[in-house]
Amino acid sequence: QVHLQELGGGLVQPGDSLTLSCLVAGQSFSVIVMAWFRQGPAAEREFVGAITWSDGTAFGYVDSVKGRFTISRNSAKNTMYLQMNSLKPEDTAVYYCRGLGRYDDVYWGQGTQVTVST
After folding, report:
1. What angle do CA 107, 101, 44 make, to 5 degrees?
2. Which of 17, 34, 92, 101 is least surrounded by Cβ atoms within 10 Å, i.e. has the fewest?
3. Average pLDDT of span 85-109
4. Nearest Cα residue to 36 out of 15, 53, 22, 18
5. Closest to 73 (Cα-Cα) out of 3, 19, 1, 11
6. What DSSP letter does each residue of 27-92 carry, written as one string?
């Protein structure tokens, strides 16, 4: 079993930066890919990007965040990060991390709210 917990959400102003963390607890050795999703007000959950856990290769960024968001991980700390720069009001959402295990098992965190507003 794998447990995920997002940390680091909050209220920021447009143009600010914010880093989210996703702590991976439990059988973290079984995770092969981690991803960030987000769900804005009255919107469907959207894929943001992902990272291969073994070698830390990030991939698949959605067009709206390319060049502004960076996904990384520290395997020693069992933590994935989402560095968000040049934040815009449209980035306002609940951000979730998701883990995919080697047997196609899927795990979700509870989400953390990010609000970008003046």
Report:
1. 40
2. 17
3. 96
4. 22
5. 19
6. SGGGEEEEEEEEE-TT---EEEEEEETTT--EE---GGGTTTEEEEEEGGGTEEEEEE-S--GGG-
- 71, 81 in Cβ contact below 8 A? yes
Q: How far is CA 107 from CA 2, 35, 103, in A?
A: 7, 10, 12
Strands 112-116 and 10-12: what pairing? Answer: parallel
C-alpha closest to that of 109 among 24, 15, 1, 10: 24
Does 28 have pLDDT greater than 80?
A: no
Structure tokens at 48: 């943001």
User: For all residues of the chain together, what is the average pLDDT?
Assistant: 95
